[in-house]
Amino acid sequence: MFSSAIAVANADGKVDVIANPDGDRAIPSILSYVGVDEYHGAQAKAQLIRNPTNTIINFRDYIGKKYDEVDISASKLGAPAIQTEDGNIAYKIIREENKTEIVTVGEAVRRHLIQLKLAAEDYLGNDISEAVITVPTDFNEHQRTELVKFAGEAGLKVLQLVNEPSAALLAHLSATENKLLEDKTYVVADFGGIRSDAAVISVRGGILTELATAHEPHLGGDNLDDSLVEYFAKEFEKKFKVDPRKTARSLAKLKAESINVKRTLSNVQTSTCSIESLAEGFDFHTSINRLRYELTARSVFGKMTSFVEQVIKKAGLDPLDIDEVVLVGGTSHSPKLASNVSFVFPESTVVVAPTLDPKALDPSELICRGAALQASLIESFDEEEIKESLQPIVVNTQHLKKPIGIKDAEGNFVPILVAETAYPIKKSVNVTNGTNENVIIELYEGKRTIKETIIEPTPVSDAEDLDDDSDEEPEIQREVVYETGDLLAKLSLKDLKPNSELEVIVNITQNGVLHLSGRELKPGSVAVKGEITSA
Amino acid sequence: MSIVLPAATGSAATFEAVSKYSAPTRRPIEPVGRYFLAHATRTLRGHTWSEYEKLEAEKNVTVVEENGDEDIGDEEQDEDLLAHDPREWKTADLYAVLGLSHLRWKATDDQIKRAHRKQVLKHHPDKKSASGGLEQDGFFKIIQKAMETMSDVTKRQQYDSVDTNADVVPPAPKSEYDFIEAWGPVFASEGRFSKKQPVPSLGDMNSTKEEVDAFYSFFGKFDSWKTFEFKDEDVPDDTSNRDHKRYIERKNVAARKKLKQEDNKRLIALVERAYSEDPRIKLFKDAAKAEKAKKKWDKEAGSRKAAEEEAAKKAAAEEAAKKAAEENANKKADSKKAKEAAKNAKKKAKRTIRAAAKEAEYFGDAAKSGDIDADVEYLVEKLDDVQLQTVSSKVAGGDATVTKSAFNEIAAELAGVGKLQAAHLKYFSA
Ligand SMILES: Nc1ncnc2c1ncn2[C@@H]1O[C@H](COP(=O)(O)OP(=O)(O)OP(=O)(O)O)[C@@H](O)[C@H]1O
Ligand SMILES: [Mg+2]
User: Fold this and answer.
1) Atom of ligand 1 nearest to the CA of A60
2) How far apart are the C-alpha atoms of B97 and B83, rounded to whole Å?
3) CATH says B71-165 is which class?
């Protein structure tokens, strides 16, 4: 966990992301100790060069884990993780008068949350006692319980723990009016500092369901930094015949500046890299452009794209089935990542990232915005009610396997409910009889097919160009089209005047009974009804 | 554009169900957003869900996140256990009842909860009667008893105290066995009852004497939390016979005490046996003997050794003195050489300076060569070692102007610090 963010939402859904006293909204999740003093956030991050062994980083994912269960390489740059007598994880740091202090992961979390709480109280001017906290989807039950416990020790009662991709998506969908009610399928891909997480989430009738998740514990901005470190180190070595990776201190300096360079290159085309006395007293001044950087880090970007493809496969879907991709996390500021990801999808799929859409919300803030929104929604409920609503009987619901719809006069499938719609659900469509006096409403399950349209390359008039492009392949555009599959039920409406307005309603109850009804939209009309069940 | 419905053909019935729709997938929905809250309210309002319905909702849920131990509690119970008399539930293997016999005392609360849920779904009487089976709720009662026991910390400790199925049996006496391999798990298993945690491990053949001693001292003073309430005779409920009740209670207390004493004795015997069979103890004894012998020899050889040392010391001192003398001589020679070199350099510089004027053809003032030579001689006399070198390098080129100005400059410099009197100069000016 590289950074933390805190946000507050008011009753009408306006969210404020809170800056800490240093003015940071993405607050580095780092604690550092110098004698009696504790540093937090950016100030602690600065200590990574001078005072690495007393600087605690990346501790969140260790919550509720035993030393034997985790990969401790995440803390290689800061205070090393050690095993306590009971097999848990802690950090050994040196405080005043050379006294060693053992800081357990729980204690680090507690201290970090206290700092965040203070920052929020400072900003809002009032006390805070409750919060919604987000966690990666792969946090197990025990980890969740432990986090709630640690937060309690920091003076924060956790109203609810929310999965990170759901929080991010909630924030994204809430930014546009009524977007939550559009039935769409999303990929939420979160590229952080040391890890990457992705989820395929379907949104149906405002209800979010995770269809698949994937995690890559060793892929993130850190790898991009390392590519730059390697690149600069080689250049430095060539110039001064000194390896700047040899000592921890020069490596830390190089890493810190590489992060700056990387972030600069997200905004502009070139960046300088300046480090006073990098190694053996040699100063290092050079510059790099975006293209060179993207080339250097090509394999990392490649892995990120495949990671997105992988989660879609895990959901049993094809990129064609994805309506939108929401890029989340600090690393999603990288222009190359956004453009690479968009190449995976057809043009109809929207990729949401700041470099592709200037109106997109800051990917570093999406998750905490979602948490703030959720907090404002449940604020008025009491603890018992919130707990009740999280019970399996509420949360575990049946989801439609295939879309359900009707056939129109031309034989096309008109979807009413899309696949993965959660029960109970009620939806209607307005139709007409045209010139027919008697019509039939045939309810079908949709059958997924892929339609391929060949787009001939636009003929080039220029004779010169013709040479180069003459053997260009015609482009094939693929799209998912649903056709009528199995017939489920028939319902007829009779004695209609031409062009009457009609309504077809499909309603699936909690226990899975599907009610179909059709009626004329006029006062006093009587609906024709019937029901079917599932296999 | 509005959707037009197809025309009805013939006089079909107004509604006709043709087939069932595909079986749905049960998935957890994400508890976020206002539509979720509406869903929750709708599901809970005016509805009381039975425990069975609630557990049913946990069945066959498509999990997106693999936790690695989804099969917890999937163990099958054997026929005897399924037919166990529920009134005698205490004699049933309660971990096997929950499908956790491979984990036993190591099972976490979460694993117990999940395993229990699985058993309820499998053995719930509602479920059994639905599938035609009858009179099967005996085992379900045992499941509930097992859960009652396991979900209460105290009760679980009481059960674990007497769960001999989890014990590791020590090797048969006088049999051939690998000590570490055979006893390691025995003590690891006994260690779970220690009030003091962590418990030292038996170690291996490379453990130090200190480690082995610490291990036996720990088990020698073993403080166990084992209790024997689980073996209590049931205290009758009826209040009519209070004397009898009290009698049973007293009997139970006495029985517990006796069992505890027996268990302590058992452990002491176990530790003693392990100690007597531990090959490391013999190794340490042998090593101690050898050490003692060595010490004795050392002691006897002490005086001789002292003499040897004395001699060695003397030799070393002589060697050092010799070396120091040599070094001194070398140093002297070196400094002599250096001095000579400096002298030579000085001589050479003076020579260059003296020759410079002539070399520069007396700056076109050959007539005044006498004055010039006199001045140069005067200057050379006044120059210190550093200045000699500077001036000589300046004038070495033979360029008339450079040489002349070098002489003028140095004259001025010397006059400036009062080393030379300008009036004494005949040709150059200070
Ligand atoms: N403008 C930017 N351009 C490129 N990378 C950036 C930018 N801003 C932040 N980052 C990178 O984003 C990463 C941190 O992302 P984020 O804050 O989402 O991580 P996190 O969620 O705290 O950690 P993790 O997901 O690894 O547990 C760091 O590698 C940081 O360098
Ligand atoms: Mg993250």
Assistant:
1) 27
2) 11
3) mainly alpha
